[in-house]
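User: Hey, quick favor. My workstation is busy. Could you predict this chain's structure for me?
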Amino acid sequence: MLEINVIKEKPQEIIQRLAIKNIDATATINKILELDAQRRETQKKLDDYLSELNQINKEIGILFKTGKTAQANELKEKTAQTKIQSKELDAFLASTISQMNDLLVQLPNTPHSSVPKGKTAEDNEVVYQEGNIPDLGKEALPHWDLATKYDIIDFELGVKITGAGFPVYKGKGARLQRALINFFLDNALQAGYREIQPPLMVNEDSGYGTGQLPDKEGQMYFAELDKLYLIPTAEVPVTNIYRNTILKASDFPVKNVAYSSCFRREAGSYGKDVRGLNRLHQFDKWKLFRFNILINHIKRSKKCANMLLRFCRNSNYHFVP
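Assistant: No problem, here it is.
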C-alpha cells in the first residue's frame, strides 16, 4: 500500500507512473488527498475539544473544593455538550479514515520509471534472451494434443467431474506431476529452505495482507458460510505467517518453500479461449519465499534504514535492530 505521505509529496508523479499500468488514478488520488485534509482538520478539532474538556474538568475540581458548587454544576453541563460534540467528531474521524484506507488499498504499487507503457505482450521490452528459440516445424503438436495422444492429461474428464479448467492427470502424467513437485521441493531443502505445508484457505485479513483484497476478490473462490478464500498461490498463506509479527535481526534470512494446489476463478473474458494448461482454475505450484536484510549496510546507511522501515510499514513486517 502506498503511504499517504508519499502521495501528498508527489501526487502527480504517482499518477504518471500508474499511467504506465494504464491506470487513471487522478480521481482516486484527489479524493485521498481531500479525505486526508478532512482527517487532519477533524483530528485538530477533536484534540481541541479534548483539551477543553481536560481544562474544564480541572476547573470543576477546583470549584468543588472551594465550595462553589453552583458554578461547578454549570461547567458540568457545558462538558456534557462538549462530550457529545467530541463523540460526533470521533465517529466522523473514524469514518473519514475508513474511507481513505478503502481508497489507499485500491492503489497498486507504482512501476519503476524504466517500465515501458503497453497493453499487450507485443509492447514488452526484451531485456535478455538465452539461447536460440527452436523451430518445432509444421508437424509439431501442441501440448494438449500430446496429452490426449499419450493419455496423460484429460481435459474433458475434468469438465465432466467439475468443469472447464480442472484437468485430470492420469498415469504417467500424474506421476510426472508428483515427481516434479518432489524434485523442486527437495532441491529447495538442499539449498537451506524450510518446507511449509500451508492451509489451502485463508481469511479476509490474509487476503488484505498480500494484496489479493480488495480488488481481486472476483478472481478468488469464496466459501460464503465460513468467510474463507481458496488460495490463488501458496505465497498468500506463507507470507501471512509473518503478518503483524516482529522479526529480530537474528531471524534473517527467512527462507521458506511451499507446495500447494492453487485456485483461481479467472473470471472475465481474458484468457477464455486459451487452451490446454494455461489459465486453469486449479493447478499445482511450489513457491520460494526469502526475506533478507543486509544488517551491516543498514547500520551504515540511514537511507537504507528508512527504506526498510517504510517497507515494513507497507507490508505488515517489523524490524527490530
